[in-house]
């Protein structure tokens, strides 16, 4: 668990730091006057406060007794003032503890701090390890057939549960079909896996309201997915008349407290591709919320500041949103830099940088309205690298690494666990997981591809290095 004192925001990450000590020019001061550097902030373990300071003849001043290995309950950020005297070398004074960052934090058995002749301070050995409640994925595409068998283990390795999307061929439109699909998923899992797929129904103009009652009683189905017809992969059977033909179903969903999971885009050809989410909010979602204020709605994979503002303006507990890793770390330039990038193509499409920044601010704010949903959507390489490529990014192997990267960059690692592990189950009215997962600041390389019986699948950031490595505990 990450602990912080909110009044003292993080100053930098625990990876490494180099702080040159700069002093006034020797020629511009009296020979017997002390020279003082600006205050520096440095990371030291608690035992460092009791370490003796000694002057070494050839290597300047150093802290002794820092060759150790321990698992600390807390890791402190100290303010350290350096003062240089021409005759007596360097002295140090320790100021107050600024904040408690991580618990636990493993310190490697190498010198933590050294001060050399070149007046450089370096932090060498702080290895960050976060232990958090195992996350859930509240928006996942597992497909079926050989693709399902190839990808499900990646999600099961990191996540305890997942809301599984119903847009198969044919779509999962009934509770009976959802139960059968769940059994197929379970049979595709490793024998020792505890992964729990949470199923959904595909809403159509002809959905029978009785299916909502059956879904709730099944204890297998946890949501109904609204795809506007033609909005994304396998959405041709989607809704064309939400407030007409689907009205009885929506009323039944309110009665049984069944969430509506919304792909929030209009599909009219007159609407610009990059404005589809904004127009959907104005013309469909806002009227829906006004008409059904007690209907639980998840706006899936939000991509714009318009969506963030809308979710934040609604009654808490009834409207929430999932946010994908790709929409937090990429903007629409990522589709075209260095040529067309088909493996960065997804729907909703990547947006402007101002929208990406709005999403980052939302998820790192601590708001309970936003939670993890990868929208991991695998396609065979041949269906991505072609003249009419499919929309979807396979991010299951890298999602947690990317979320951690975003929260670290925003100095908000203390809010990561709520976003990944608490907000989702709380909104759905489900218990939080008891299992844990460890996130280590350990560089690792993303595989170039994952081969399966019928071909291969390219993951997000294929072949690149990522900083955070998730490991189940």
From TrEMBL:
Q: What's the protein called, per UniProt? A: Dihydroorotase, mitochondrial
Instruction: Enumerate the NCBIfam families for this protein.
Output: pyrC_dimer
Q: Which reaction does it catalyse?
A: (S)-dihydroorotate + H2O = N-carbamoyl-L-aspartate + H(+)
Q: Which domain of life is it from?
A: Eukaryota
Spell out the Gene3D superfamilies in the cross-references: Metal-dependent hydrolases
Q: Which family does it belong to?
A: Belongs to the metallo-dependent hydrolases superfamily. DHOase family. Class II DHOase subfamily.
Q: In which pathway does it act?
A: Pyrimidine metabolism; UMP biosynthesis via de novo pathway; (S)-dihydroorotate from bicarbonate: step 3/3
For this protein, the Enzyme Commission number is 3.5.2.3
**Broadest EC class assigned to this enzyme:** hydrolase
The entry's keywords: Hydrolase, Metal-binding, Pyrimidine biosynthesis, Zinc
Listed under GO biological process in this entry are: 'de novo' pyrimidine nucleobase biosynthetic process; pyrimidine nucleotide biosynthetic process
Q: Where is the Amidohydrolase-related domain?
A: 137-444
HAMAP family named among the record's database cross-references: PyrC_classII
Pfam families tied to this protein: Amidohydro_1
Look up the record and report any one GO term of the cellular component aspect: chloroplast
Enumerate the GO terms in the molecular function aspect.
dihydroorotase activity; metal ion binding
Record organism = Solanum bulbocastanum (Wild potato)
């Amino acid at each position: 668990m990450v602990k912080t004192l909110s009044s003292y925001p993080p100053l930098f990450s625990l990876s490494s730091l180099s702080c040159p000590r700069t002093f006034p020019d020797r020629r511009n001061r009296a020979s017997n006057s002390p020279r003082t550097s600006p205050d520096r902030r440095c990371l030291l373990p608690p035992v460092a406060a009791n370490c003796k300071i000694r002057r070494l003849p050839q290597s300047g001043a150093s802290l002794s007794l820092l060759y150790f290995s321990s698992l600390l309950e807390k890791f402190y950020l100290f303010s350290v003032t350096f003062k240089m005297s021409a005759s007596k070398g360097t002295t140090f004074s320790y100021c107050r503890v600024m904040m408690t960052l991580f618990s636990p934090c493993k310190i490697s058995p190498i010198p933590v701090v050294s001060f050399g002749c070149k007046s450089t301070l370096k932090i060498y050995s702080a290895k960050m390890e976060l232990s958090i409640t195992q996350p859930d994925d509240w928006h996942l595409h597992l497909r079926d057939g050989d693709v399902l068998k190839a990808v499900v283990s990646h999600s099961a390795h990191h996540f305890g549960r997942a809301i599984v999307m119903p847009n198969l061929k044919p779509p999962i439109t009934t509770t009976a079909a959802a139960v059968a699909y769940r059994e197929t998923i379970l049979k595709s899992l490793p024998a020792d896996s505890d992964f729990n797929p949470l199923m959904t129904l595909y809403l159509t103009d002809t959905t029978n309201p009785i299916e909502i009652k059956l879904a709730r009683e099944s204890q297998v189905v946890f949501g109904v997915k609204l795809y506007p017809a033609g909005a994304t992969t396998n959405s041709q059977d989607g809704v064309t008349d939400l407030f007409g033909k689907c009205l009885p179903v929506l009323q039944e969903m309110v009665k049984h407290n069944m969430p509506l999971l919304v792909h929030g885009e209009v599909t009219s050809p007159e609407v610009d591709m990059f404005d589809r989410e904004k127009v959907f909010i104005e013309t469909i979602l806002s009227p829906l919320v006004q008409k059904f204020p007690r209907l639980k709605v998840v706006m899936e994979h939000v991509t714009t500041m318009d969506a963030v503002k809308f979710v934040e303006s609604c009654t808490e507990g009834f409207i929430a949103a999932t946010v994908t890793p790709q929409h937090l770390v990429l903007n629409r330039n990522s589709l075209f830099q260095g040529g067309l990038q088909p493996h960065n193509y997804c729907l909703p499409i990547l947006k402007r940088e101002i929208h990406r920044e709005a999403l980052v601010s939302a998820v790192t704010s601590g708001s309970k309205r936003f939670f993890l949903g990868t929208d991991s959507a695998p396609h065979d390489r041949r269906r991505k690298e072609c003249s009419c490529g499919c929309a979807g990014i396979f991010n299951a192997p890298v999602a947690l690494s990317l979320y951690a990267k975003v929260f670290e960059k925003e100095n908000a690692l203390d809010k990561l666990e709520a976003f990944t592990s608490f907000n989702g189950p709380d909104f759905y009215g489900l218990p939080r997981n008891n299992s844990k997962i460890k996130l280590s600041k350990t560089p690792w390389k993303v595989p170039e591809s994952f081969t399966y019986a019928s071909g291969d699948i390219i993951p997000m950031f294929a072949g690149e290095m990522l900083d955070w490595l998730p490991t189940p505990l």
